[in-house]
What does this fold into?
Amino acid sequence: MEQRTGHISPADLARQRDYTEQIAAVLRERDVPPLAFVDTYGCQQNEADSEHLRGMLREMGYGFTDEEAEADLILINTCAIREHAEHRVLGNVGALVHTKRAKPSQIICLCGCMMQQQQVAQKIRSSFHHVDMVFGTHALWRFPELLWRVMSRRTRVFELTDEPGSIAEGLPVARMDRVKAWVSVMYGCNNFCSYCIVPYVRGRERSREPEQILREVRELVESGYKDITLLGQNVNSYGRGLDRPIDFSDLLREIDRIPGKYRIRFMTSHPKDASPRLFETMAACSHVAPHIHLPFQSGNDRVLRAMNRGYTRAGYLALVEAARANIPDLVLTSDVIVGFPGETTPEFEDTLSLIEEVRFDALFTFIYSPRPGTVAARLPDPMTRAEKQVNFDRLVAVQNDISAEKHRAYLGKTVEVLVDGLSTDPRNNLNARTPGGRLVHLSGPASLVGTFIPVRITGAATWALTGELAAE
Ligand code: 5AD
Ligand code: SF4
It folds into this structure.
């Protein structure tokens, strides 16, 4: 039976605010305000978590710096999705030995998905003595208490309890952007795709109450945010286990009623739970962007079964057809894994043919990376890395041609873009997004950031478009 996972009680959250206040009182004694360096690896959920950690740090009195060397506190929010991400983190944490030597009072904290794995935490404990604190995803809301322990007792703190996961509402937040914002609608994952570490490090699926989500989105819109992404590992199963019967389509409809000029996006959708009803809802809701990120992972039925994905190639293709039938100008993006254990080259070619059939606007492509503890990590994996790389390169070449062709179709068209930030390119100083989320480079006054404007598309490349301001 599905169990409703607990919310952290208001009393427990208040206790964390007391710790925050105790830390703030100590830090106020200092001549110069302390600085924190926060580094985030991985997906948008990690970005969103880091914004809460930054919010807690700000309430403690920390300012922020981009320089590790001058930081009084370093906080690294880690990602475990592939081995490469873990190696990068360990390399960078190793290098912090030098900053700590130069500044022995520096406090170094590691958190996030990598740290939720016991064997990683053990390795940090035994081999990275300069690290003061390690906490996993489930302990995020207790960061003030853990930091207070490090500060007051001058001991190393390792907080790694494994649990199904809970929801902490009302944590402070210091957002990184003024135009785009993340809103988590649910946490965790129950799907146990055989290659994936997420269900082990993020706990069971649990949805936030719709009222909390609506309040957060309303506040964001009222304070000027224009591009709001609803986050969850599998947003299509939103609402399971809540008292009030509600699903993701219902939630989108309720959010869509919030007045104002803004766009709503969401990710990620799992094909096994996406439905024509979702596509009808997207089409009916004027604020919902015509974009869906629908990871297919493989185009071969045997591999899909071995991945425990819960749908077939034909099922996926039918979904795409339904989505396109409902949503004109749909931008469709996806994730794919090459070299799953036991995947043969003919099976890989089914993935290639699916890509050619569907013609995604963009694809996030990954070579399989074994994750200790997952089912797939125990499967025989006879194909060499070099062979996998050949298949991967074939796939990327096919997709790059498709992406470029998709982008060429925009040439000469005028589209309403949201200018969402400044770029470092002096010729095209602005970045903008089409309704479907494609990146557009253009030049214009910085005051356009945060506004919707018509732009004529004049250039198209594989990864981005270029455009110029169109007369209104
Ligand atoms: N190896 C390679 N890619 C992976 N992904 C998840 N786990 C692995 C793994 N072990 C990819 C999937 C997922 C995306 C976020 O990362 O394609 O959709
Ligand atoms: Fe991982 Fe599958 Fe859950 Fe996505 S749906 S987070 S790929 S287990």
Observations:
- The pocket of 5'-deoxyadenosine (ligand 1) is lined by residues 81-82, 195-196, 295, 297, 335, 337, 366, 368-369, 371 (CB under 6 Å).
- The radius of gyration is 23 Å.
- The longest helix spans residues 385-408.
